[in-house]
Amino acid sequence: MVIWGHCSWSCNMPTWFEAGLWGLIAGSALLLGAVFGYFLRLPQRLIAGIMAFGSGVLISVLSFELVDEAYRLGGVDSTATGFLAGAAAYTLANWLLARQGAKHRKRSGNEQPSEQEDSGSGLAIAVGAALDGIPESLVIGLSMLAGGAVSFVTVAGIFLSNIPEGLSSAAGMKKAGRSPAYIFGIWAGIATLSGIAALAGYTLFASAPPDAVAAVTAVAAGAILAMLVDTMIPEAFESSHNFAGLIAVVGFLAAFTLSKLT
Predict the structure, then answer these.
(1) What is the per-residue DSSP string for 215-252?
(2) Which end of the chain has the least Cβ crowding within 10 Å, N or C?
(3) In whole angstroms, what is the distance from residue 23 CA to residue 26 CA?
């Protein structure tokens, strides 16, 4: 895992505070994406292409940062167990939320239901959006356990993938008639939760044995991969299916190159 040493502005910060700050920075990309999605009339294919790029970035981060780090710390058993458990837990939670109206929360078209069409879907979408973002932020805190320095590639990868997530979802929310207060309230809240999750990832596991850290990292990785396949990739494929694979490969390569240059 590539780590980024403490810079001049953060060298006097407590490490737990810095972990939370990096999580907040990565999570703020969701709010930034929501601003783009709400105020800009972007073509459906462009949104899908951006989502495909973000999917490729996250797959690269999963492969070369999270799963690789989990294997280094805990071996195959901890990594495989955590990876499957994370995917299973996310899938179950996502299935339950989908039944409450949150199935299309990442879609930028007209798939999202309005509150009038599906009472309670607004809350389900908000909870689902938080469910999508927390595992990503948790691993930022975990990445700092190795030596008190953040994994720059992990933060950059999550930041880059969060922009299309917020963009696509906010565009869909707007088309479903959700209010600006609802849309930006969700993403501002999740950005804050991202900081809290990163802080928790560092503080709760600071004294944990390597096997436990490996398992938790793998749990988060499994949840992220399940989220990708269930929510981001369908949106990417919907409007840009002829080029979605190529764009995802470009995103994967960009994150991989970044990991080797830092």
Answers:
(1) HHHHHHHHHHHHHIIIIIHHHHHHHHTTTHHHHHHHHH
(2) C
(3) 5
- Asked if 27 and 219 count as a contact pair (C-beta separation under 8 A), the reply is no
Q: What share of the chain is helix, strand, coil (3-state, %, to 5)?
A: 80, 0, 20
Cβ(3)–Cβ(150) below 8 Å: yes
Amino acid at 45: R
pTM for this predicted structure: 0.84
pLDDT score of 262: 66
Closest CA to 135 of 238, 26, 47, 51: 26
59 and 252 Cβ atoms separated by less than 8 Å: yes
CB 126, CB 104: distance < 8 Å: no
Other C-beta atoms closer than 10 Å to the C-beta of 9 total 7
User: What pLDDT, on the 0 to 100 scale, is given for residue 193?
Assistant: 93
* Choice between 10 and 176, residue whose per-residue pLDDT is larger: 176
Helix (H, G, I), strand (E, B) or coil at 150: strand
Lookup: tokens for 22? 């990096």
Half-sphere exposure of 13 (CA within 13 A, CB side): 16
Q: How sure is the predictor about 148, in pLDDT bands with cuts at 50, 70 and 90?
A: low
Per-residue pLDDT at 5: 47
Q: Within 10 A of 86 (CB to CB), how many other CB atoms are there?
A: 24
Number of Cβ within a 10 Å radius of residue 19? 29
* Strands in 22-159 per DSSP E: none
Closest CA to 184 of 204, 205, 170, 200: 170
Read off the pLDDT of residues 2-14 as tens digits, 9 standing for 90 and up: 544 444 445 567 8
150: β partners: 4
